Amino acid sequence: MKDARRRGLIRYLPVLILFLCYLAVCLGLFFWQVGNAIEKNTLQSLRSNVQRQCYHFRSMLDIQFSTLESLADHMGGRSRCSPQTISTCSTPPYGAENSPVRC
Questions:
Q1: Is the whole-model pTM more than 0.90?
Q2: Rounded to an integer, what distance in angstroms lies between the CA atom of residue 87 and that of residue 78?
Q3: Is the Cβ–Cβ distance between 92 and 60 less than 8 Å?
Q4: CA distances, 71 to each of 5, 76, 78 (Å)
Q5: HSE-CB of 49 using CA atoms within 13 angstroms
Q6: CA quadruple 40, 42, 46, 48: dihedral positive or negative?
Q7: Per-residue pLDDT tens digits of the chain, which is 103 residues long
Q8: Rounded Cα gap, residues 18 and 16, in angstroms
Q9: Best exposed site among 16, 43, 79, 83 by fewest CB in 10 Å?
Q10: Rg of the chain's alpha carbons, rounded to an integer?
């Protein structure tokens, strides 16, 4: 009785080892794909955040430069605006192409 049972176990042992190897390979491939997907999504998210921050930084600098330029114009006497012509005397803010900061 014991011999028959041992022979049955020995016969299923290679199949069990093969199944465990298959399972290990599948788990390895799964975790490798998950790691690649996480890395790809993280890089996309970082790029998007950096682009938004760069755009925000540029717009803040443009506003600051515009304010400083209008103050310099006023202090320097280059622009003498009366209340009637104030809408035509305002200086436009720097555009992105004229901005000294490049991201």
A1: no
A2: 16
A3: no
A4: 97, 8, 10
A5: 6
A6: positive
A7: 677 777 878 888 999 999 999 999 999 999 999 999 999 999 999 999 999 999 999 999 999 999 998 888 888 875 555 555 555 555 555 554 554 545 5
A8: 5
A9: 83
A10: 35
